[in-house]
Amino acid sequence: MKIKIFSVGGTIDKVYFDKLSDYQVGFPSIRDILGGLPIAFEYEIESLLRKDSLDMDDADRLLIKSRVEADPCSKIIITHGTDTMVNTARLLDHLPGKCVVLTGAMEPAHFKSSDAVFNVGVAVGAVSVLADGIYIAMNGRVFNPFRVRKNRDLGLFEEVD
Fold first, then answer.
1. Structural domains in the chain?
2. 81-115: per-residue pLDDT in tens?
3. Catalytic residue among 11, 82, 88, 103
4. How far apart are CA 66 and CA 37, in angstroms?
5. Cα–Cα distance for residue pair 52/42, rounded to 1 Å
6. Does residue 21 carry a pLDDT above 70?
7. For residue 152, how many other CB atoms are within 10 A of its CB?
8. Is 82 labeled as catalytic in the residue annotation?
């Protein structure tokens, strides 16, 4: 099995430089996450953007969609900022022949307390077994992007009607 991974930035890739929280979105942290694990699948990582998701616009989302559509791989993970992950997932709806899972982190992957490794693991498991469609893997669950929201107060994603 081969998984194509598109990195578009977000907190998962943030690098902080001082106590005032000055940061930049760095290189895809998923390289370090997967590179340090004994895994039983092939993968390819492509960095599309290095943006905080709050700075993303419709043109960025259309770029993501066009690259996902054009890629021959049927199993795709997108690492993305959590603030607008749902918006991007909804735009990607109806891509035939593709299982696409978006994931990210509430804290940068390089933080010891980060949920990045856990979320990436859930995303890999999800993309490995789910039917074609668009999904969000966060907080140990897999969500339909039309029935989920980020709850900032609780710091997690939750299902909604």
1. 2-159 (3.40.50.1170)
2. 999 999 999 999 989 999 999 999 998 887 888 89
3. 11
4. 30
5. 28
6. no
7. 10
8. no
